[in-house]
Every structure is written in structure tokens, then in C-alpha cells.
């Protein structure tokens, strides 16, 4: 039986990129390595929470850098961060925002993309929240290659709203059964499944820190610990 799959969509940060290393490096030197890691993980979650609220409140898509500045200010104002807030000067804050634009790929990603594109002849896309400028900077810094980059800024809506996925399918002239969404974020995959796409969850220790992984495993068509077998798994869906 010939696979109906024509395109594989990827979430970007977390799924394909190690954002954590970039952010930890940009944090104040006075913080311990443990403090930096915890801060980065919680800050990232605060960003997700902010986007969820914007979707619920039907607010328009916001520039990624502006969101990061706003989320950082709010995060530093929380009780548990007040004792380190003084370490975050304007320069440090701007360095932190800039760090999101320069990330390395996880070691398994480049080869996975090569197999999908060259061996399987599938189209591969980035489908991620954020700005187009951000995505352009990230593909350069990570050395990755996709057929197209779809940002929430470009689409005018955040994942996991169904309009985000439907908008991409309309532009690509593809049907939901011809597309697979790959992500390290359960919410992204719920949105994809809601419009009829197949879903593959790739576990990354940096993301979905509040999710029950056993539940995530049951909710998706495939659950992987890395991307080494991604092409064969997708072919079997």
C-alpha cells in the first residue's frame, strides 16, 4: 500500500532546536547552573502560558521578541524570582531576548530531515509559533533546511488553534490525511489531530515539563525518544 503522506510538519524550538543551551548561556553568571536551568525551563513554560491566554482572549498575534520581553518582565516579578531580579539589567534582558534567535539543532535532526527529503521524497516544513525573522535566524544558526517556514506571524494565528493548521493546508493545497505533525509539545499535536492530521510526539527533556508522558504516549499515533527512526515510523502510519 502506498503511503498517502506527502508532507511532514515540524514544530521548531524544543522539537528540532536545543533552545535551553542558548538561554542558559545568556543568563547572569551569578546564578548557579542549576538555577539557570530551572529558570530557563520555567521561563519557557511562562511563554507557552502567555500564548494560551492570548488565544483564549482572542488577542492578535504578537511579535515574538515583544512577547519574550513582556513574559520576562512578568516572570521576574513573581515572588520566587524577586531575589534575583536585580541581576537582570536592561542589557541582560536584551541579551536574553536575542538568544532565542541563535540555537543549535538537536544532534538527530539534520539526518532525520535528510531521510525525509532525499530518501522518502516528502516535503518538510516548519510550523511554529513566533516570527518569520526568528525562524530565518534559527535555520541559519542551526544549519537546517526546510521547504518552507510557516510562523504564527505569517499565518496570523497561534498553534494549537485549528485555523493555524487549516491555513497551512490551504496554502500547500494538501489534505489533512496527507500531512503529519511532529512535535515535542502535546498541545501542538492535539491541534493537529483535531483537524485530521497524523501526529508523532518526540520526547525532549526541555519541553512539556508539566505533561504526563504516559498520557501523551496514548494520545498520539507514534511516540519517539529521538528522531533516528522518524522516517520509517511515519511511513508506517
UniProtKB/TrEMBL annotation:
- What domain of life? Eukaryota
Q: Does the keyword Isomerase apply?
A: no
Q: Carries keyword Hydrolase?
A: yes
Query: Which GO molecular function annotations are given, in alphabetical order?
Result: hydrolase activity, acting on acid halide bonds, in C-halide compounds; phosphatase activity
Key words, A-Z: Hydrolase
The residues forming the signal peptide are none
Family, per entry: Belongs to the HAD-like hydrolase superfamily. S-2-haloalkanoic acid dehalogenase family.
Q: Kindly give the PANTHER family that the UniProt entry links to this protein.
A: HALOACID DEHALOGENASE, TYPE II (AFU_ORTHOLOGUE AFUA_2G07750)-RELATED, HYDROLASE, HALOACID DELAHOGENASE-RELATED
What is this protein called in UniProt? (S)-2-haloacid dehalogenase IVA
Amino acid at each position: 500500500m502506498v503511503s498517502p503522506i506527502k508532507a511532514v510538519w515540524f514544530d521548531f524550538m524544543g522539537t528540532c532546536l536545543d533552545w535551553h543551551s542558548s538561554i542558559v548561556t545568556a543568563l547572569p553568571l551569578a546564578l548557579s547552573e542549576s538555577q539557570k536551568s530551572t529558570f530557563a525551563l520555567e521561563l519557557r513554560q511562562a511563554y507557552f502560558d502567555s500564548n494560551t491566554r492570548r488565544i483564549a482572549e482572542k488577542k492578535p498575534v504578537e511579535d515574538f521578541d515583544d512577547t519574550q520581553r513582556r513574559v520576562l518582565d512578568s516572570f521576574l516579578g513573581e515572588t520566587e524570582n524577586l531575589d534575583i531580579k536585580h541581576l537582570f539589567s536592561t542589557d541582560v534582558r536584551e541579551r536574553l531576548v536575542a538568544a532565542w534567535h541563535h540555537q543549535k539543532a538537536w544532534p538527530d535532526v539534520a539526518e532525520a530531515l535528510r531521510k525525509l527529503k532525499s530518501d522518502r521524497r516528502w516535503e518538510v516544513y516548519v510550523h511554529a509559533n513566533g516570527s518569520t525573522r526568528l525562524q530565518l535566524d534559527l535555520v541559519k544558526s542551526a544549519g537546517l533546511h526546510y521547504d518552507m517556514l510557516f510562523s504564527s506571524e505569517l499565518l496570523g494565528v497561534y498553534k494549537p488553534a485549528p485555523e493555524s493548521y487549516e491555513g497551512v493546508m490551504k496554502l500547500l493545497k494538501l489534505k489533512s490525511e496527507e500531512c503529519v505533525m511532529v512535535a515535542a509539545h502535546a498541545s501542538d499535536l492535539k491541534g493537529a489531530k483535531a483537524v485530521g492530521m497524523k501526529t508523532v510526539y518526540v520526547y525532549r527533556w526541555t519541553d512539556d515539563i508539566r505533561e504526563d508522558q504516559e498520557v501523551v504516549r496514548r494520545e498520539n499515533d507514534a511516540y519517539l525518544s529521538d528522531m533516528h527512526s522518524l522516517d520509517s515510523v511515519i511511513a508506517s502510519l
